[in-house]
Amino acid sequence: MKKFKLKKLKMDFLSSSLLDGKSSKSKINFILNKVRDGSILVMNGVLSSEEEMELIKETMRRVDDGFPGIEICSLKKQTKGWKQFFEVLSERRVKLQDFILQSLTGKSAKKSLKTGLTLIGPAKIIKEIKKNPDSFSVWAEV
After folding, report:
1. Is this model's pTM higher than 0.85 or not?
2. Cβ neighbours of residue 114 closer than 8 Å, sequence gap 6 or more
3. Do 140 and 126 form a contact (C-beta atoms < 8 A)?
4. Coil/strand/helix, residue 118
5. CATH code at 60?
6. How many structural domains is the chain composed of?
7. How confident is the model at residue 88 (pLDDT cuts 50, 70, 90)?
8. How far is it, in rounded angstroms, from Cα 72 to Cα 118?
């Protein structure tokens, strides 16, 4: 029988309360520092589309020989009908409040994560993510 050596895989499971109340920049720095150290993060929340875009931009700025980038996959709670309409209105209200706060004080409002599940990990470990509407599968290689 062939023996194989087990390699270590580090996974951090994060409560949304860990990132709630932090600025977008703080969230992104926290995530990238963890992932750069080789951790795979599983969060019970979803970044806003703007935060996810900023995370990807900041990742591209930090890519080098030792850090090839990240893989990210999120499952968001799907809403329909009136609930979706009011959710969009609420998001617009938060963006308007943030714009006013930033205009007056130069500071951005601290945002909470949306309901959902997010996996973020180093591209050198996560080889493939297959996503379905309600689930995803991750192939990792250590």
Report:
1. no
2. 45, 46, 47, 48, 76, 77
3. yes
4. strand
5. 3.30.110
6. 1
7. low
8. 7
